[in-house]
Amino acid sequence: MQSLSITSFLLLFCVLNTGSCENNDDLKNREAEFALALYQKLAEHDNRTNLVISPASISFSLGLLQFGAQGNTFGQLKHALGYSTHDENVQNFLHAAYKEGINSNQGAIVHLACALFVQAGVQLSPQFIQHAAWWANNTIQQTNFSDPNRTEAQIKEWIAQSTGETSCLSLDTIESPLSQIAVVSTMDFRSTWQRTFTFTHTQALSFTTADGITLKVPTMYLRAEVNYGEFLMGCLDQISVVELPYLEEMVSMFVVLPSNRRTSLARIETYLSAQTFFLWSSTLRRTGMDIFLPRFNIQNHLDLKTILPAFGITDMFDQTEANFKGISEQGGLYISEVIHKAKIEVTEDGTRASGMTAMVLLKRSRAPVFKADRPFNFILRQARTGSILFIGRLTNPTQ
Q1: Which is deepest, 13, 126, 146, 176, by most CB within 10 Å?
Q2: 56 and 175 both lie in a single domain
């Protein structure tokens, strides 16, 4: 069977200095717009490397911070996300989206969790504690930031309990004479395809990287009816989009491939927007196809502190301008670090690739072919809520 597991971590390290109503379609569009804009900003830095992020995990934690932000700090978060978590309609919609899980007995899990690690002696607002518990199934744990090794171990233990992943984290900034609060958010997605790839059909096929290097990589094969479409982008660039649903079709992976081999993926990424993605996903048509998709495994450790200011989020990083009095009346709370860690792995369940060799000669067919043998984007979207759980690109399956 084909299995996919993804885990994402978002850590916001906060240092305590001692001195309208929205409709659901609007919210879906604003969430998608933030997700795709965030990805574009990160993708601009190096457009030839593999990349994966979890926009849902990031907006999840920024939404939690809105409950404790006030003044201009709150205004910046609201403007960047496009909504206020103080709006009851927003709360109900997003809470339902974040809480939606798939029965693990059916072979699929979507799970978001959040915890606050608080320096002993810091008094949190009872109202914020209530919001945090409701918003994020939040747990509050006391810790001692003057013992950074112990704090790091405590956070790693919570991540392991939440996701089953052993995380390698570098928490350099927690060693400080100042009191601190850490907000840790995790997302875990595990599922099997609705139509599974068969391991006996996996074979070594060519993949041309963003640098023009041709590699032989394990490539999976599936013949099935899927949702498929071809679209013209700006400057008449053409793309192919295929939707590969997971079990129960509650989450799907959209694979976006430039149709012309000479068109760079970086060029296509400049056109990504909520409007274009909605157009693709709503106009795909059922098509019988031969699908070739490489196995891949990507993990990234990203510093979002350099990216979020591009969305107007600046005050929360400034010791004098940050206003998080809704979290603690002691004041002086600001964000010192924003670290995002995400991982995606696509591989057949139970496969031991090093232990066996499979080479299958596939019969020619008249069916259209979707062959991801060059860099492509992937977007994992929750069907009911429209939430973009993960977005990324594969430029080299061997990295």
Answers
A1: 13
A2: yes
Contact 110, 100 (CB under 8 A): yes
pLDDT value at 23 more than 80: no
259: in domain = yes
- CATH classification at residue 280: 2.30.39.10
- Distance CA(351)–CA(197), nearest Å, equals 12
Instruction: Indicate if 167 and 217 belong to the same structural domain.
Output: no
Give the per-residue pLDDT at 328: 86
- Give yes or no for residue 44 having a pLDDT over 80: yes
Q: Can you state the angle between helices 24-45 and 274-283, rounded to 10 degrees?
A: 110
How many separate domains does the chain show?
2
Note every long-range contact of 170-175, with CB atoms under 8 Å and residues 24 or more positions apart, other chains counting. Answer: 170/301, 171/11, 171/13, 173/13, 173/15, 173/336, 173/337, 174/13, 174/145, 174/148, 175/145, 175/148
DSSP state, 193? B
Residues 255 and 230 sit within 8 Å (Cβ to Cβ): no
